[in-house]
Task: structure prediction
Amino acid sequence: MKTDKTPIKKVALYAGCLIDFVYPDLGEDIIEVLNHFGVEVVFPEGQTCCGAPAKYSGAKSSAIKLAQQNVEALDNPEYDAIVSACPTCIIVVRDDFLKLLGDDPKYSEGAKRIHEKTRDFTDLVMELAGEEKWAELMEGPKVTYHDSCHYNRSLGLKGVARKALTELAGSELIEMEGSDLCCGMGGSYTVKFPELSAPILARKLSSVEQSGADVVAMDCPGCLMQIGGGLDKQNSKVVAKHTATILAEALRKRKS
Result:
């Protein structure tokens, strides 16, 4: 992991399936924010699905093949960091590749290097920002925050996004009840077990509405799809956004 003594100047963006195919605008927001801090962002060709769906379905051989392909795409000494805005992808790329390829003589060393370089987008932004605070120059939206399961429990970044939203984006943070309760997405869980996922989502949507916020922020594209879709279905006035999008909007407002 990079420190203040080793400045991050060039990063590889690992998009993951949802940002690549469903939310490409989110990818552009990520690049815009990182460029603001003087970081060059590249999109390595050859990157593919992290393999989480295969892993969780028990298709280990498929997960290994995907890990190998991603190591070939991401293991480059030119990259100071590998950044993603999907916490599930981060866990897989950073940790699971090591487990899957640890005994592979061709890919094990690359998996180790990727493990050392992989970073969460919002966490990296707060490191790059240092003492910079855009909030002093603007007033952001009223935001409530949903703690995505992998972001909170696996990465341990519960307070990072809140700090970014308030100190950088200038948002007024309104905590919702049960902010760290699952939204019911769980990858394919929402498709395979809709009768279980639906009431979990309903509970989350109720908490979002009761918060009185204009925007519900989160750091997981899967949660964005689940919560955003749920809000759209009930014609809610609350808008679901990834933290990266809110930061990009604040940056544009600041520049204007």
Q: What stands out?
A: The longest helix spans residues 194-211.
